[in-house]
Design goal:
By secondary structure, this protein is of the alpha+beta class. It folds into four domains: 46 residues; 52 residues; 160 residues, 2-Layer Sandwich (Nucleotidyltransferase, domain 5); 63 residues. It is built from 14 helices and 13 strands. The strands form three sheets. The protein has a nine-stranded mixed beta sheet with strand order 3-2-1-4-5-6-9-10-11, with helices on both faces. A two-stranded antiparallel sheet has the order 7-8. Helix 2 packs across helix 3, helix 5 crosses helix 6 and helix 11 packs across helix 12. The chain is elongated, with a radius of gyration of 34 Å.
Length: 410
């Protein structure tokens, strides 16, 4: 029964002699509400009563500008738009003109703006607020909750009072919010590999591992076609490494947020006399964080078990996929692996996902749009093969063969 028909039937029953209490109980309303309906229909035929809800108070606010004043405002706006030497005809210009004409009760600027808005006399357009894309929208299977994504980053240059400088490798999963943190005296690719192996042995391998473009994660930038130690680790475990676009917000939001929480709840909350003490405090926080997120961790996409008898072979030929998220330049080109690739001249200053298929020897560029996160249009495929050269295990980082040959020749 519609609200209007319900009120009609209730008032009709009261007019036919039934008590207010009985009708109110039958209709499931308060007796005061029924009394209000009866008073509203008093002296009218029920077929002519306006049963629509009415706002309380006067139909027209007492402080609202008169219709004649609104017409004057619109007329002045039209005159200023056509004849003003300054070319200004907004609320400020209208108020100056009304004051210059010595009109009584000139409205304030805010009231003039409301008049223009109410009468449809505003030329500007409001910004359209679109919903944010889903988490992991740039990876289709992560967005569909079919694969997990682990993000890693460094909190750098923390100085213990009277002690050493500390770097902290942090990580968190996108769907399960599984955290990890490793304070270490210096960030190195070897330290990252040891920490990731420890973490994935304990909790399983995700589908993707995301990093920024630090040389500790990606490898040295001064030589093209370089695949670093951390990337080789991911490929050997069949985990797709993903590198976020430089100087872009949003892609690293999950790990950046966790970094802020770790610094607030661990680093800034306590006094740490040593690195060992900091590691203990961090471990306590991570354990409590995991306990609180146990239900979410359990509901996350399933992880693959860590392979038995696995051993990292840095000299093995890299196989699998590497994903680079990049923004094209003014010529529609994208930079990755130390090289510049043509993508699409019409897709300038736009996001792309570059999938490097090492097995097929191909790079596929997909268009990314936050406004349409489910559509990933293939823009171009470019042949590409990683040069076969040995991986030189030097202290601190992995460098290309070209650098070794140059040093020897020098």
């Amino acid at each position: 029964m519609s609200p209007e028909k319900r009120r009609y039937v209730s008032v009709l029953a009261v007019r036919r002699g039934r008590s207010l209490r009985a009708v109110a109980e039958d209709m499931g309303v308060a007796r005061s509400t029924l009394q209000y309906w009866v008073a509203r229909a008093e002296g009218q035929r029920l077929s002519r009563v306006d049963w629509s809800d009415q706002p309380r108070g006067c139909r027209r606010p007492v402080n609202r500008s008169s219709a004649s004043m609104e017409e004057v405002v619109l007329m002045v706006r039209s005159e200023l738009r056509e004849h003003s030497a300054l070319g200004e005809f907004g609320a400020d210009a209208i108020r100056r003109e009304l004051l210059a004409r010595r009109l009584p009760d000139v409205p304030c600027v805010r009231t003039l703006h409301r008049i223009l808005e109410r009468r449809g006399a505003l030329d500007g357009s409001r910004r359209v607020r679109r919903p944010a894309p889903p988490p992991g929208w740039y990876l289709p299977d992560v967005a569909a909750r079919e694969a997990e994504l682990d993000s890693f980053d460094f909190v750098e240059d923390l100085v213990i009072e009277g002690g050493p400088q500390v770097d902290v490798l942090t990580g968190i999963s996108l769907r399960g919010s599984l955290p990890c943190a490793w304070p270490m005296p210096q960030k190195t690719a070897k330290g990252v590999v040891e920490a990731l192996v420890e973490h994935w042995r304990a909790f399983g391998c995700p589908g993707y591992a995301q990093f920024d473009n630090d040389t500790c994660f990606q490898g040295p930038h001064q030589h093209p076609d370089t695949i670093g130690r951390v990337t080789r680790l991911c490929l050997s475990l069949q985990i797709v490494p993903v590198f976020a676009p430089p100087r872009e917000t949003g892609f690293q939001a999950c790990i950046e947020s966790f970094n802020g929480r770790w610094q607030t709840k661990v680093w800034a909350r306590f006094h740490h006399p040593s690195l060992h003490h900091l590691r203990e405090r961090s471990a306590q926080y991570i354990q409590a964080y995991r306990a609180r997120s146990a239900a979410r961790i359990e509901a996350a996409p399933e992880r693959r078990p860590f392979p038995l008898r696995w051993r990292l072979n840095l000299q093995a030929k890299p196989t699998g996929r590497i994903i680079y998220l990049r923004r094209t330049n003014e010529h529609g080109r994208a930079e990755l692996l130390g090289r510049t690739f043509d993508v699409d001249r019409t897709w300038v200053h736009r996001l792309v996902r570059a999938e490097v298929d090492l097995d097929q020897g191909m790079i596929s560029f997909y268009a990314l749009r936050r406004r349409d996160p489910s559509r990933h249009l293939l823009l171009k495929e470019t042949p590409y093969k990683v040069p076969q050269r040995p991986f030189h295990d030097l202290p601190g980082c992995a460098v290309s063969c070209h650098r070794i040959v140059t040093q020897v020749a020098g």
